[in-house]
Amino acid sequence: MVSLRSLRLSLRFIIPLALALVLLAYTVMPLVGKLTLRWFEKDLDIRSRLIASTFHDPLADLVKQGDRAKINALFMRAIKDERLFALGFCDGKGNLLYKTPTFPESVRCTAGTGHSESGSILKLAQGPLYVSTSQIEMTGEALGTLILVHDMSFVERRSSDTQKYVIALFAVLGVVVSLITVLVAHLCWRGWVEGVRSMLRGEGIFRPFSQPAASSELQPLVGDLRTLLRNIDAERRFADDATISWTPDTLRRLLHKELTGERIIVVSNREPYIHTKEHGRVEIHRPASGLVTAVEPVMRACSGTWIAHGSGSADRETVDRHDRVPVPPSHPDYTLRRIWLTKEEETGYYYGFANEGLWPLCHIAHVRPIFRLSDWQQYKAINKRFADAIVKEADSDDPVVLVQDYHFALLPRMIRSVLPKATVITFWHIPWPNPESFGICPWREELLQGMLGSTILGFHTPFHCKNFLETVDRYLETRIEHESSTISHGGNLTLVESYPISIQWPYPWQDTIPTVDECRNEILTSLGLSPTHLIGLGVDRQDYTKGILERFLAVERMLELHPEMVGRFSFVQIAAPTRSALDDYQAFEAQVRNLATRINQRFSTGSYQPIILKAEHHEPELVNRYYRAADVCMVTSLHDGMNLVAKEYVAARDDEKGVLVLSQFTGAAHELHEALLVNPYYIEQTADALFQALSMPAFEQQERMRSMRALVRDFNVYRWAGRMLLDAARIRQREKLALRIGRHQ
Ligand code: G6P
């Protein structure tokens, strides 16, 4: 269908064409007429000379003889030629001696030359006439002048015919050229529109391999525009970072303003509130999960729906008929939608593929990943079940969905296939390995393709992003733009960006929790320790990635090196049971227990124990009291995406005391530079750091803690979510603009 734009475009060519033709008719054509007239005059001159030379000898003879009858007959024969109108003959004295009856009266003889106006045009009633002369002589004696009068009306006829043909030719040519121009312009326009649309989507001029490239003439322009857009984005980000102070309110406003009040949908395997049946009563637990710690406050700020596996023994009896329950239980802010799994499904998808396959695959902890086909099939099926639930929960065709972690690598693509306009923000809470390591997975391509259904794919650190880009580059046919950190695949564009996760600030118990001294007294008393006893603290799930064994060995080594600490220092390890159905985890729990027992046996005196192992679940508020009581907190993960325990410890210490010993292999080490950074594999170094922490002067503790607290305050979890949502909002705006541009084509 010819659109209005095409019509307007066509008129832009047709109007100038019409003007050009008018100009042609009024200015150029008279010139063409004059030119053709001059050509015909020349022709007539040549013709005159030809006729004159043919007549010369017989005419000269007849004039000499004075034979009027024969001359007249000769003349009459000659003017049978339709273009020769009349003939006359003048003697040297200017007398017109012979003439045809058609000879015009206005043509007169003059003495000497025969005719005064030779080579001139006469405009008479019968039409224009052209007069030419030729001298007639015999053996050097001048006899007179032959006057030839040519009919020029044919010249006018031809000239006007020529003008008509020329105008018609120009008109046809003009129309053809205009049509071709309009066609080319139209094609160019479409190319430009395509180019601008893909640029707005962040694709530049590049399309996925399956689609044709946009016009190449656009390349330099698109390059410049994209740089401009990137700079604008960077400036906006910088301005946002510098000016926005991130709170739940900021996040809410952002959602309202930039994402037009969209409710968000969060998907994770672990649910934020677990209902369990204990002694006949329903209890509510908050799970030990960095993911939940971070995302829950975001959900409370934004509201919406959180879809997760209902894993608690009383979960089913606390939901409504749509499997929904409002949370937090005390003052609901959002909806928890539970998904049910059979034991078999949980074994394959969660324990098997996610935690025996992907978890060790992504962590450098020297535990071999196990990949079973049956686990993979369950993983696919459960991802599909969650995708269906998302589609049901979405109240528009372009929802904002936050997909959490390695349990759902296939989900982004599944969502996009049903809701192509959805904004899918996927966050990978654990490290991303290098391409060789990832290549171990038999279904690596499917996993990567699944993740590339995301609009934004977030990792904690730029290093994990780099690993991911390299992995995609190695195993998939995609277009990667390193400058903008985007991947084009199957018509979809994914921004791969680092968003270091964080915690709620101010932390939730700020106004109600007892003072540091009170917490310290309470904890020390509960442990049966004296008020001056030094406390080290570790808070982890009992996971082999957390470096708990290395930490205990460092405690042992410190006690060896500094015997004065024996009896004065204890290390409290809060170790939440986790994934206990798996052999590796059971073996690890046993190793932790045995090592603690061995060290305790070695250094115990009376009731003193250097290692106090609390291998049970602790609610977050109690953990917070431990943080406030501890002189040092040890985070010695062998490999960790972020490790929020480090940030929680810092947030809990509003007295600006306490020291953080932090593994260099955590994401947190990229931000908390004032911690004592250690390589947990290097036991001597960690032992030294522990001793340094225990003997650190108060002012140094304060300086370090103050600086780390400022960082955690400014880079809190609202900023983490806010930056992702802002980026998503920009992408959404561009998508919408791109669609609008396309619609008016
Ligand atoms: C890590 C993962 C989370 C997970 C948490 C607890 O932090 O990134 O996705 O929730 O461990 O593990 P669990 O298996 O108990 O959920």
TrEMBL record:
**Lineage: superkingdom:** Bacteria
Q: Where does the sequence pass through the membrane? A: 13-32, 165-192
Pfam families recorded? Glyco_transf_20 (PF00982)
InterPro entries on file: Glyco_trans_20
Keywords per UniProt: Membrane, Transmembrane, Transmembrane helix
Xref: SUPFAM superfamilies? UDP-Glycosyltransferase/glycogen phosphorylase
Regarding protein family, the annotation reads: Belongs to the glycosyltransferase 20 family.
Please state what the protein is called. Answer: Trehalose-6-phosphate synthase
Originating organism: Geomobilimonas luticola
